[in-house]
Amino acid sequence: MPDLIIPAPLWRRFAASIYDGLLLVGLWMATLLLSLPVQHALGLPAGSPWLRVTVFLVGLVFFAWFWTRGGQTLGMRAWKLQVRRGDGTALRWPVAMVRYLTMMIFWGLVLTPLAVAIISRLPSLAAVLPHAAGVAAAATAAVLIFIALSWADRSRRLPHDWASGTEVVQLPRNPSPPA
C-alpha cells in the first residue's frame, strides 16, 4: 500500500525555511566577499545594481537547483518535506524561478515588520520611513491573510505555491524501500 502523502504543516515549512534561510545568508555573505575584489577590479561604483542581481541569482540557483533535483532543499530534507508540482511531478527551472521570485516577495512581507522595527530604532534612518507603523501593519495584515488562506486550502499552499502551481508535502518518516 503506498504511503499517504499529506500537506506539510505550516510550522514544519517555517522550520525548514529558517534552516534554508541561514544557508542562504551564508551563501550571500560568501558572494559579497568574493564580489568585492571583482567590483573593485572592474571599477564599479558601490551602489551598482550588478551586486543585487548577483545576490538574487545566487539565491535562485541555490533553491532552483535543489527543487529541480529531488524537490528538497537541505532544510526541507531535515524536516522531511518535498516540493512538487500539483500533479506530483518534479519542478522544472521555469517553475522553480517563479516559485523563487514569489517566495522572496512573500518573505519580504514577512520580514518587513522586523526591518521597520530596526529602522525606527536608528535615529539616522528613522526619517527615511515616516510611515513605518503603517508599512509594518500592512505587511503583517497581508501575511496573516495569506496564512489564513493557506489554512483554508486543503493543500496548505502559500502564495509561492499558488503562483508556481506547486505544493509542499510531508514525506513519511520511514519511506518504503523500492520494490
Spell out the key features of this protein:
179 residues; mainly alpha; 7 helices; three-stranded antiparallel sheet
**What is the CA-based Rg, rounded?**
19 Å
List the secondary-structure elements in sequence, H or E. Answer: EHHHEHHHHE
Number of domains: 1
The helix-and-strand class reads mainly alpha
Order of strands across the widest beta sheet? 1-3-2
**How many helical elements?**
7
Structure description:
- It is a single chain.
- With 179 residues, this protein is mainly α.
- It has one domain.
- Helices cover 66% and strands 7% of the residues.
- It has helices at residues 10-42, 49-68, 74-78, 93-121, 123-126, 132-152, 159-164, and strands at 6-7, 81-85, 166-170.
- It has a three-stranded antiparallel β-sheet.
- Helix 1 (10-42) packs across helix 2 and helix 4 runs antiparallel to helix 6.
- The longest helix is centred in the N-terminal third of the chain and has 33 residues, at 10-42.
- The radius of gyration is 19 Å and the shape is globular.
